[in-house]
Amino acid sequence: MKAALIESVGRVAVTTVPDPSPGPREVVVKVAACGLCGTDLHIREGEFAPSLPIVPGHEFAGEVVGTGREVTELAVGDRVAVDPSLYCHECRYCRSGHANLCDRWAAIGVSVAGGAAEYAVAPVANCVRLPDHVGLQDAALIEPLSCAIRGYDVMRSTLGARVLIYGSGTMGLMMLELAKRTGASGVDVVDLNPDRLATASTLGCSRTAAGAEELDRPEGWDVVIDATGNAAAIQDGLGRVAKAGTFLQFGVSDYATRVTIEPYKIYNREITITGSMAVLHSYERAADLFAAGLLDPAVFISDRVPLDDYPRALDQFAAGVGRKIVVVP
Ligand SMILES: [Zn+2]
Ligand SMILES: [Zn+2]
Question: How much is the pTM?
Answer without folding.
Answer: 0.96
